[in-house]
Amino acid sequence: MRFSIQVALAVTLLNTADASSLYRRNRFNSASNNTADTSHLKTWWHATGEVNTGTPVQDGNVRQSHLYSVQVASSISHNLSTFYDSFAYESIPGNGMGTDNASGVGTTMAWSSFLYGSDATVKISRSDNWSIGNYTIRPTNLNLNSTTYGGDVYISIPYNPRGYRFSVEFGDDLQTISGPEEKSPWNSLLIFASPMEDPSIIPSSSSSSSLVVQEGLISGLDSTQASAVIFKPGVYYCTGYSHMKLSSSVNWVYFAPGAYVKGAVEFSNTGSEVKATGHGVLSGEQYVWYADPDSNYTTGSDNNGLRMWSGQTGSSQQTFTLNGPTVNTPPFNSMDWNGDLTLMTTVATDYKQVGSFYAQTDGLEFYPGSQARDIFYHVNDDTIKTYYSNINIDGVVVWKYATAPVVQFGWASRELSNITINDVSVIHQSYDNAGDNPGLIGSDNAYTASTTGISSNHSTANVSNTMQDITWSNFRAEGPSACLFRICALENLRNVTISNAWIEKFASSDLNTTESLLPVFYDSITGAQVNVSNFVIDNFVVGSTKVTADNAGSVGQIDVDSAYASAVRYQ
Ligand SMILES: *[C@@H]1O[C@H](CO)[C@@H](O)[C@H](O)[C@H]1NC(C)=O
Ligand SMILES: *[C@@H]1O[C@H](CO)[C@@H](O)[C@H](O)[C@H]1NC(C)=O
Ligand SMILES: *[C@@H]1O[C@H](CO)[C@@H](O)[C@H](O)[C@H]1NC(C)=O
Ligand SMILES: *[C@@H]1O[C@H](CO)[C@@H](O)[C@H](O)[C@H]1NC(C)=O
Ligand SMILES: *[C@@H]1O[C@H](CO)[C@@H](O)[C@H](O)[C@H]1NC(C)=O
Ligand SMILES: *[C@@H]1O[C@H](CO)[C@@H](O)[C@H](O)[C@H]1NC(C)=O
Ligand SMILES: *[C@@H]1O[C@H](CO)[C@@H](O)[C@H](O)[C@H]1NC(C)=O
Ligand SMILES: *[C@@H]1O[C@H](CO)[C@@H](O)[C@H](O)[C@H]1NC(C)=O
Ligand SMILES: *[C@@H]1O[C@H](CO)[C@@H](O)[C@H](O)[C@H]1NC(C)=O
Ligand SMILES: *[C@@H]1O[C@H](CO)[C@@H](O)[C@H](O)[C@H]1NC(C)=O
Ligand SMILES: *[C@@H]1O[C@H](CO)[C@@H](O)[C@H](O)[C@H]1NC(C)=O
Ligand SMILES: *[C@@H]1O[C@H](CO)[C@@H](O)[C@H](O)[C@H]1NC(C)=O
Q: Parallel, antiparallel, or unpaired: how do β-strands 298-299 and 291-292 relate?
């Protein structure tokens, strides 16, 4: 009774600005297990949750948030008085195995996921005595309605077939990292609301061509003749000295909501499509940084670190379809295929990457013709990688550590066209020097140039190549930011548009990260100057000031080489 009155009040408060409340109370209950499973709301729980912020958890356990508990109510199948438990996972830097080349030491990252088919309310409780003051939901432009009541935060999540991916950040739990003003949570909490799973992403577990994996130690996937491998709710693990080398018959891996799989996936099937679907978790937590399978998963150094997703092209086109999973703690680049990569394409939807504290934890590979939407990246290197043509990416939330730009198209001279990246919200970034190759949009110098930063050898381009017909639109950076772009033009640039970019404010200029640069580059053989034409900066706003040709240097911190100045147009 008390509960439903309280919640009715809280829900009423959700539509008001009033958060004047409230009590200080501890109603945290880590042992609860009251989940929803209807056509409007699905939540899940792990009976083997282990609260442990210091060491690896037991193989059969799942690290559970030491601080947060999350519950969800649906507006339809249940009324808003009935909240269901939604497991709050947790990731810690280096998984407590050592923090070499890990960022974020001393922090934790929690997340909770659920599926919904109608408006829902998320309730977040903290196990400490939170002195209610303030909290921020990022990206801030989601404008989610929320309130506090009785020591808990209630957030209203309207139904959206594309779901929501956001961070809830408490004002009394912020640390300052690298850049003098950058503030991010000590104990972060991400919420992932996804639409109910379409039947097309769920393989039949009764089919003779499906293998339902037994809980516990994973084995036999390299010899199965099944085409679909199914992880039902439960906990599975490979150990830190093995990963899932799938037999050539397997073209589909399904991670049910509530499946927690410690391992990494390697396809050997070379058919037209391989798939990884479902809203379970694939966790690299048992691997050390840069685990090299060729040296018994010890830290390597020759770009052979274990990818969470890998495969091999054959002699014909292959699509890698990714829909739903959350990847935790990748030990290295999250994805790479081998073979003729022009035969590959990636189609990614509703994909989340968390716990990327290690260095070199890149985002996905977008091979020619790739399409991606609704992605959350916690990431510590090249993030949105566009090394190929005909790519369309829409809706990415990025939490960035210090290395490499958010959009990366450099490292080598490339022939590229028809790339559109729309709606990118960077909620944190922590670049602290020019050698980080900072920025929202960037092209790093040739890998062979061997020095970091933009001031190295500028005779590394190939003017036989051109990048053209590129649109980067609706980019936003919350908090102190590095530059809008820093481009080593390793090919000619033609018809490139940055449209509707917003930087809340720049980080300190002492860090040498804030200046947008487009220096002159030359062909490595002929010495010919790289050509730049029709480079449009359309509606770039810093704070509330629009950047124009007149204030590009002072407000936009844009410094284009004089050789290219006339090619850059502000509108
Ligand atoms: C929830 O509790 C029931 C009864 O104790 C148990 O059978 C079930 O396995 C639990 N489910 C989870 C996901 O923990
Ligand atoms: C809402 O759910 C609560 C708890 O299950 C129940 O007591 C109440 O009668 C329900 N209200 C409505 C309007 O259905
Ligand atoms: C950390 O990474 C750097 C750069 O990749 C490397 O030089 C260094 O050896 C690494 N440290 C450890 C302890 O592996
Ligand atoms: C929270 O406050 C209560 C009442 O003052 C106290 O008993 C409890 O130990 C406190 N808990 C924490 C985690 O500080
Ligand atoms: C927030 O509440 C207002 C007032 O009820 C409503 O108009 C708006 O759509 C809500 N926004 C979201 C994102 O739910
Ligand atoms: C938010 O709350 C914290 C802790 O109570 C306080 O230090 C900080 O000043 C508050 N920030 C704002 C913007 O109110
Ligand atoms: C890999 O290393 C682990 C841990 O030291 C050891 O138990 C295992 O036998 C090794 N495997 C191989 C194939 O050497
Ligand atoms: C541009 O790329 C998109 C996304 O892959 C594709 O749908 C479209 O057909 C491409 N356009 C051309 C002209 O190739
Ligand atoms: C420059 O690019 C062209 C076209 O892609 C290629 O044929 C040539 O080998 C490249 N030159 C160098 C030096 O890499
Ligand atoms: C410039 O590129 C855009 C896509 O970014 C394309 O729609 C447009 O047609 C191109 N314009 C010219 C003149 O090629
Ligand atoms: C920024 O550049 C200046 C001048 O080159 C240099 O003295 C300073 O150390 C740099 N700061 C950082 C954080 O790299
Ligand atoms: C710059 O790079 C080019 C191409 O790799 C190379 O030929 C040249 O020697 C380099 N210049 C310097 C100063 O290192």
A: antiparallel
